[in-house]
Write a structure and sequence with these properties.
Strand order of the largest sheet: 1-9-8-5-6-7-4-3-2
Number of strands: 9
Shape: extended
Structural class: alpha+beta
Order of helices and strands: HEEEEEEEEE
Helix content: 10-25%
Length: 155
């Protein structure tokens, strides 16, 4: 009887610890943003896309090569006009199938807060092509803005 009580207590304790850890790590998977812009209708497979930020500045975002392939190195670039930016990350998430945490940090180029670049890759989907959302997370030190773009990769 005591052994069953100990086992039940251990299971409840483990579940509680798991819940606390999941709560603490949740912002890594779904960052808390101050502003979420609507999904752009621009096609990243064809061109760089431009979005207007809440402060009136503009961001141009591109992924190369085009069309965007799976399992190959991708070059991510974000350029800003009229905005001072401190940090840029790109959250790459599958729309219909979760493919794990994939959020590269883009490095500032020339230290001017106007150009950021980095590399990433997309995992292959067993069904061939897959729809993705690339959410550019723009941090200017006061506001975290999420700018989502959708595209299809694969065959």
């Amino acid at each position: 009887m005591t052994r069953n009580l100990l086992l039940d207590t251990a299971i409840l304790l483990a579940l509680a610890v798991f819940g606390v850890v999941a709560y603490k790590l949740a912002p890594l998977l779904q960052p808390k943003t101050d502003v979420l812009l609507p999904v752009s209708s621009c096609n990243l497979n064809q061109q760089a896309c431009i979005a207007t930020l809440p402060d009136g500045g503009q961001m141009e975002f591109s992924i190369e090569p085009r069309p965007i392939p799976a399992l190959r190195p991708l070059q991510l670039q974000a350029r800003f006009r009229g905005s001072d930016v401190r940090r840029v990350e790109v959250d790459l998430a599958g729309i219909e199938m979760k493919m794990g945490h994939n959020r590269p940090l883009l490095a500032a180029q020339d230290g001017d807060g106007k150009r950021f670049s980095g590399q990433a890759s997309l995992p292959v989907c067993i069904t061939g092509s897959m729809e993705w959302e690339a959410t550019v997370l723009v941090d200017d030190g006061r506001t975290l803005v999420a700018v989502p773009f959708r595209f299809v990769s694969g065959n």
